[in-house]
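User: As part of a screening pipeline, I want to sanity-check one entry by hand. Below is the sequence and the SMILES for zinc ion. Please return the complex as structure tokens so I can compare it with the automated output.
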Amino acid sequence: MRFVSPALKHIVYPVLSRSGYFRYTAGAGPAVVTYHGVFPAGYEIRNPALDGNLVRAESLRRQLQLLKKRYHVITPESFLGWFKEKVSLPPRSILLTCDDALRNTLTEMLPILQELGLSCLFFATGASVGKMPSMLWYEELYLMLLDASEPIALNLSEAGISIRLTARQEKHTGWWNLVERLSQFDREKRRKLLDQTRDQLKLSANWRERFVEDSTLASRFLTLDLAGLRQLAAAGMSIGAHSLSHPILARAPDDLAWQEISESRRVLEQALGQTVWAFGYPFGNAATVTGRDLRLAEQAGFRCAFMNAQGGFGATINRFAVPRVHVTADMSLSEFEAHVSGFYRALRKRLLGGGEVEAVVGG
Ligand SMILES: [Zn+2]
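Assistant: Here is the complex for your manual check:
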């Protein structure tokens, strides 16, 4: 769980940020930050758990301006050169990354990156090499549960799933339980089970259509198709793989985990005609990624692979578990710098002990 204190957020972080303490005490780098997209104009935040991983356009601009002014934002290729050939990097180097390749990365995020002359490593799933509009399945499931009236009774006998949720507040726990259980199946089987879920929740067969037809919802929830992904690449952005279908890898059997990791590299390379050297683990925290998955990423030919927690300057960098700072919608600007500088990670360790840090749900 993220450690949040109002006194830190409203008093300590702003003072330390203004005084330059964060940047002068930042440990060895590089540091890596993770975004998950930018809210399209006019989008109303539906639910903090669902939307908490995206940021507002204005927040992104202010965060990137701060990084440009006080740190050194490097290109993904410089990061690779540092890994591969030990090419030295400027002090306080930061790599920008963004997971999931939602449509808003092209329409909302790219213009801000271009305005500031920055590049970013985007992690796309196998869905982005297709032509059909696609949603992240775990977001689709969350939206279905939000729309369903209680009590919710689900019986997916093929998957051995039988759950009953009687209160609104149980939806979040029930949802994550389903995400864990459905991650053991491949994309096709999971699609079938999601359709059964929609029927059992008494949602109409065309329930999903409004996310395709409404341009604001489409920008928030749909992933880029191949044309969109090619536009990102043509704009000078780098593309990495984020698995075929975004399961919790730790819940997938060996053959499925291998397919999700290695095939995502193959299909993206084939579709884009370029080398895909980086992998971003779906969800990307210690509860969702195992040592086996790190080995599979290496065996699949990636040069490095990224987690989604424990980041900031001074973090230990393992090539196949590169830590990142997970940027969330509720972060203030000085709080963002506290995370990037490594101050937050060090403080949390001191106050709450070692071990796994963030229980990141999105990713
Ligand atoms: Zn993701």
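Points to compare against the pipeline: Residues 99-100, 242, 246, 282, 363 surround zinc ion (CB under 6 Å). The CA atoms of residues 309 and 324 lie 5 Å apart.
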